[in-house]
Specification:
By secondary structure, this protein is of the alpha/beta class. The chain is 26% helix and 26% strand.
Length: 491
Amino acid sequence: MAVVETRSQTLLAVDPQPTYTLSPWLYMQFMEPLGATDASVEAGWDLEAGAWRPDLLTAARALRPTLIRWPGGIFSSYYRWREGVGPRAGRTPIANMFWGGLESNQVGTHEFIELCRAVGAEPLIAVNFEADGRARLAHSRYGGERAAGPSEAAAWVRYCNAPEHPERRAHGAAEPFDVRLWQIGNETSYDPTGFDAATSAARTRAFAQAMRAADPRLRLIGWGDSGWARTMLAEAGDQLDYLAFHHHFNSGLEHSPLRWDDFRVDPGRTWQHLMHACHSTEARLQAMRAEVAGSAVGLALTESHFALPGRNRCDVLTTWAAGVANARILNVHARHADVLKIATLADFFGTRWMNNAILLPTPAGSAPAYLLPVALVMALFRAHTGERAVTVEHAPAGLDITASRAGGRLYLHVVNTQANQPVPAQFAAGDQAIAGGRVYEIAADPMEVVTPHNGSDFATTEYALEPGQTDWLFPAASVSAVELDLADPAP
């Protein structure tokens, strides 16, 4: 006997009244030289051409990152910015003290800004925060003193932003870079040999004051993870715009198959664990919200991704199932975007680190750079999103949905969490009629792996909604961006 879907079961109802503003920086990319672990930044730079790899730029433009963070990460704890400016022939390689190997310093401030401008992203620079108090990272046998204080951070601000800075102009950049976003401290609370909370907060204040003296227009991020938020706010909150924290996660369920090749044994169980991972992010954001409650300081999730054991990272992250899971997590970010202003779900690019958004085949030219599943869903949602959130009042079972609005258009980010079942929906927008719209959809076999050769299997398909059409069938394991045009565009 056929099951008849009632309107109450299929209703996808949105209140079109706009609520909080959505930050454009919810689709950030994080770029760190990962040395021997992953030839990431070095692999993206063509030493012979003295330029970024063209296939990297093509892939990055498809990804459309709104913000790129550099130089790290833990790498920022021993990065001295003056070693990466000036004529490239005179730059000295340095030891990558945490990740291993050498960094050529061919990619420095100018090259980073060039990349941001080439792909339409804003730059976010993380300064050397006195090696985050880590004595073992403060001095290198292959590079000397590695810790840097407030004066060096302020000098970097002036180099980037002062209109007539003579040194920058001598290095070929007559116009200022106008970098407004800067981060002070990275995972400072994670190393018991580094700063404690009180010291970190006091030093953050000193850095912020020196940097703001160099350019009062800055928007500054301090480190607030591991229960440090209240201490940081009490000591330096008047100097900060955001508090950073990180979230590296598995499924959150016991006996996870998301490891090595175990995920291939039982696809159904793998899907269940991937679909559950969003609850870990939800709990993390709820906890951080509680810590900054009553403050005007926003949250910055400057690193976040699956952390799964495998050859380097579990190969499940190359499957479409991981793309669907990451789309659910993007929806969690959007639901907290009244407080969450900066967020990511991937490291930007590399040759083997499976948390990358973009994979770079080597040698260069052997195959083009391509987007991994997390990047496919980030690009889809980024390309079709509104300016302010709206409330989803009712959703069919099996669909995870967030919504936003810009002018007379509603945007829905829809994830079908069912691996094998399509889900029908009937769109409704309060008392406003829907005049038409479009659906942008990615649907694939959950266990299919993204490679350089099967990109068409994961291509976005565009469909038109006829005027007055309100029904749609979301395929199994699909991620969709829906644009609905309202007959009455007035908010």
